[in-house]
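Late entry, magnesium ion complex.
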Amino acid sequence: MPYEKELAAAKKAVTLAARLCQKVQKALLQSDVHSKSDKSPVTVADYGSQALVSFILERELPSESFSLVAEEDSGDLRKESGQDTLNRITELVNDTLASEGSNSFSTLTTDDVLVAIDSGKSEGGSVGRHWVLDPIDGTKGFVRGDQYAIALALLHEGKIVLGVLACPNLPLASIGSNQQHSSSNEVGCLFFAKVGDGTYMQALGGSTQTRVHVCDIDNPEEASFFESFEAAHSLHDLSSSIAEKLGVKAPPVRIDSQAKYGALSRGDGAIYLRFPHRGYREKIWDHAAGSIVVTEAGGIAMDAAGNPLDFSKGKFLDVVSGIIVTNQKLMPSLLTAVKEALNEKASSL
Ligand SMILES: Nc1ncnc2c1ncn2[C@@H]1O[C@H](COP(=O)(O)OS(=O)(=O)O)[C@@H](OP(=O)(O)O)[C@H]1O
Ligand SMILES: [Mg+2]
Ligand SMILES: [Mg+2]
Ligand SMILES: [Mg+2]
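Prediction complete; structure with ligand written out below:
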C-alpha cells in the first residue's frame, strides 16, 4: 500500500508530540509563553512538538531525503534571552522520548533540538516530497486551555497525500450543536487519512480505529457551521450573513484550530467558514492535514470563489477571500450564498 510506512511514522510522531503538549498545557507557566515578531504567541510546546515530530520522522524514515515545511524556527531560541526556554524545551523533548519506552535513542542536546526545529525550513513546492507541519495549531486556544491540534501532512508532487491530526482536547463524542447526550466525556482524538483510502479516527493513544464520514445533510436549514474562536482570525459578521442566506438555524460552533476539520470529517457539523481579515495570507500548515482529513471523509474544501486549494506554491496558500468546507450536496448552495454575501459586503464599503 502506498504511503503505509509514512503514515505509521506520522501517527507515531504526532502522538508523541501530543503527549508533550498535554503535559505542558496542564501546567502552563507564564514563562512558557512568548510573543513572535508578528505578535502571535508561541510556547515551549510549539517548539518541543516541532522538534519531536522532525526527530521522529527522520529516525523512522531514514532512507528518505527529508524535507519539512513547518511553522516555527529557532531564531529566538538562539539568542541569549532564549537559553532558559531552550533548556526547558530540550528537557520536555527528552522526557517525552523517554516515556516512549524505547532506549534506541541517545539524549538530545540543545544543539540537536535547534537542528531538529530548523529542519522545518523547507519551502515546499510542486516537486518531490515535503512534510508539512503545524506543531500546535490554535496556539491561542492552547494557552486558553481550549482546543488545539498537531497537524502533519505529506505533500507529494504538489498534492497532499496523507494527513494526521491530533486533537488532544476534542471529545470522542460529537460536539455538534445538535449533539445527542453522550455517556462518554473522554477527550483526545487522532484523525488520519491517506489519499484514496478514506479517513479514520481513533482515541489518541488508542488502537481501535473507525472510519468517519462527513454528514449527508442536504437541507441547509438543518446544517450547523464551525468558525474560528478568535474574531481576529475570521470575519464572524460575514459568516453569519452567509448562514442567514442559507437558512442555517443553529448558532455557530466556535472552536480553535484544525480540530474544526476533524469534527467536520465525522459529521459533527456540516460547514466550516473561514474568512480572514484583509491582507492576511494563509499558510499551508494551517490547512494541509485538515483538508485531506475532510476530503477523504467525503467533503470538499475550496476557496470562496470555488477554486480547489493549491498546496503546491510554497508555504503560502493563496486563496480568494477565504476557505469554505462542506459536503458535496451543500457546496453549490454554499458557494451561491458566499458569492451574494461577498457582493453585499463589497457594495456596502
Ligand atoms: N490575523 C489572522 N487571520 C487569520 N488567521 C490567523 C491570523 N493570525 C494567525 N492566524 C492563524 O490562525 C491559526 C489558528 O486558526 P484558528 O482557526 O484556530 O483560529 S482560532 O484560534 O480558532 O480563532 C493560527 O495558527 P497557529 O499560529 O498555528 O495557532 C494562525 O496561523
Ligand atoms: Mg496554525
Ligand atoms: Mg502553530
Ligand atoms: Mg502560530
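The chain has two domains: 2-209, 218-346. Will revisit in the morning.
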